[in-house]
Every structure is written in structure tokens, then in C-alpha cells.
Amino acid sequence: MLREVYDWVMSPALPLARKTGHLSEFVAIAARRRRRRADWAAHEGRTRGFVERVAATVEADGIAVILGAGHVDDIPLDALAARFEAVVLVDLAFSLATCRAAQRLGNVECWRRDVTESLDSLPEVREPEAFLDDPRVRFVASVNLLSQLGVIPTRTMADEDADTLSRRLIEAHLRWLSRFGCPVVLITDAAVEVVDRSDAVTATLDPMKGVTLPPAAETWTWDIAPRGELDRDHAIRHQVVAIEGLPCAKRN
Ligand SMILES: C[S@@+](CC[C@H](N)C(=O)[O-])C[C@H]1O[C@@H](n2cnc3c(N)ncnc32)[C@H](O)[C@@H]1O
């Protein structure tokens, strides 16, 4: 608990993120990861591997932009910094460890930004424009971020309104990614499964709120909350998709 208080106070974050509850969620994710490091290792390794493989195929004489970088546990930061002239990490908040890694590498910047460009205008959802006019951008990765965009902004809303707003934030993010003229990768959970003691799926939730994603190049399971994390009888696991190239988003 003391560690969480320390992280909340010390993590460089947008002032908005302190008010909205995003920073508390950011700190909570780090605490969950400390408890579940071994369970999350395969997912983080697959994420890093996918980003690194695609990044290795693109022209490197410019900037890589990594969205949702946060604690960089799922980002191949050293490899990206070695390959590109500069790496821009984007999140509402960063851990001190991420800031230290950026400083050590020298060509990595931590940008505290709201990728929706809408947190201060909700429920109006704006079309994100950041980086689109920057000719130095060679590679963009949205990393385990998409399903999170609506979580905090909608947590006090009725289900239907919450789903509608989340869907609009997801669609705007996908439209933004599809407008970059360079290779883009998207890694996100596409289904959330509740699993009982016999390993049977008892419920499946749609974190994309009805938005159809482009075909995945790779898929894997993220054991985000094995039994014991939330309750004794159930586990939660995420089905994750890794997508390369973003045609425009469609709704079901
Ligand atoms: C599940 S975490 C991704 C994991 C992250 N790459 C890591 O290693 O910690 C989701 C990240 O999205 C960020 N995020 C959520 N909403 C955001 C927004 N509107 N703008 C920028 N970042 C946001 C959170 O702060 C968090 O760091």
C-alpha cells in the first residue's frame, strides 16, 4: 500500500490523470503486475517480440512512436532505441523507472499526453491528430492501450452509455492509427474470458464494444488474473490480438 502511495505521488503524470483516476489505475496495474509477474511474462514477451519484429522491417531514419508505453514492461525499449534515431513514448503517466531508462538511452523521450485528445471534452470525442503531420515518424505502435481508453471515463456511467462512449473512443483511435503513412502495429485484448475451476469459459466480454478489428497476424492468451487474484473460483484471461497495418475500422 505504501508503495502505491509513493508511486501515485512520484510518477510523472498529466495533472488531468491525477484528477480523473487514470493515475490510480496506472499505479494499480503496476501493483497487479508485481503480484503476477510470472503469469504475465508470456504475454509481455509476445508483445515485445511482435513490436520488435515489425520495427526491424521499417525504415529506421526517423522516430518510433509508442502509445500506451507507461511502465514499458511490454515494450522492447532498448531495441527500438538502438534502431531508430529517436523513440517517443506516449502515456498519461510514466513510472520513474521508465524515465530513468529513457535518460540512460539518451534518444528516448517520455511525452505525457492524452492519446484520445478528448479527456477534457467528454462526452464529445475528438479526432486525434497528434504526430500525423510529423514527417519524421517511421513507426507507430499502440500497445495494450485500446481497450483501456474507455475504462476510467465511463466507470460511473450506465452500461449502455458507457459502451457507446467506449466504442466511440476505440473507433477514433483506430481512425487515427489508419491515417499514418508509415507502418503501424496494434496490440490489444479482443476478448475477456471468465474461467471457472474446471477451466470452462463461463462468460465472454467484448472489450471492443462491437468494433470489428482488422485480421490479426498473431494471437495469444494473457492470464491477467489467475484464480486467487479476484476470487478463489474464477480466473480472468484476455485473448490478445497483434495486428500489422490498419485499414479503417468497421462496426458490427
Ligand atoms: C494496460 S497498460 C499498457 C501496458 C504498458 N505498455 C506497460 O508496460 O505498463 C495501458 C496504458 O494506457 C495508458 N492510457 C490509458 N488511457 C490513456 C489515454 N487516454 N492517453 C494516454 N495513455 C492512456 C495507461 O496510463 C496505461 O499505462
Task: Report on the architecture of this protein.
- The protein is of the alpha/beta class and 252 residues long.
- The protein has one domain: Rossmann fold (3-Layer(aba) Sandwich).
- The protein contains seven helices and ten strands.
- It has helices at 2-10, 15-20, 22-35, 37-55, 77-83, 96-105, 159-178; strands at residues 63-67, 86-91, 108-112, 137-143, 184-195, 201-205, 211-212, 218-225, 235-244, 250-251.
- The strands form two sheets. Strands 1, 2, 3, 4, 5, 6, 8 and 9 form an eight-stranded mixed beta sheet that branches. It has a two-stranded antiparallel ribbon with strand order 7-10.
- It is globular.
- Residues 248-252 have low confidence and may be disordered.
